[in-house]
Amino acid sequence: MATTSVRAPDASSPPTVGEDGWAASLAGIERAHYLSLTTFRRGGAPVMTPVWFARVGQALYVITDDDTGKVKRIKNDPAVRVAPSTARGEPIGDTVPARARVLPVTEASPGMRALSAKYRWLFTAFALMHRLQRKTPVLLEIVGQATLRE
Questions:
Q1: Buried-most residue among 12, 56, 58, 110 (CB within 10 A)?
Q2: Left (φ > 0), alpha (ψ -120 to 50) or beta: where does 148 sit?
Q3: 26 and 93 Cβ atoms separated by less than 8 Å
Q4: CATH for 19-147?
């Protein structure tokens, strides 16, 4: 009798989700007000953060400051996991593997418009806070692994 060895998947490299699976996941995620974004430290330890997000086509957009830990972790490892969540980051749906990249706000105007439309005056207040604190906002573009644009 042959023995098969199965290796546990690497936490920083989730399995690939096809475009159909990603599209189906987006439908469930889109209804949520918050997204639990899981990024991975260099050692592979997951870090979950609740964030605002908006959908544009097959991508999710998140606004954050350019000096946050999640931006640094995504620049090191673009593999992420996302799930609809509560404001405290507790997942309320299935977790889906994806890939993220950091974009300057000027390159992602559809994402900015979608975030503004979804969060309205809260988004305006957030943008004002960025200006007053002299922070540099960036957008995270999150896509299914099969739809990543290089």
A1: 12
A2: beta
A3: no
A4: 2.30.110.10
118-142 per-position pLDDT tens digit? 888 887 787 778 777 788 889 999 9
pLDDT tens profile 6-60: 333 444 334 444 556 788 889 889 889 999 999 999 999 999 999 999 999 999 9
pTM: 0.79
Kindly report the length of the chain. Answer: 150
Concatenating the DSSP letter of every residue in 43-104 gives: TS-EEEEEE--EEETTEEEEEEETTSHHHHHHHH--EEEEEEE-TT--B-S--EEEEEEEEE
Cβ neighbours of residue 16 under 8 Å, at least 6 residues apart? 97, 145, 146
Instruction: List CB contacts of 4: < 8 A, sequence separation 6 or more.
Output: none
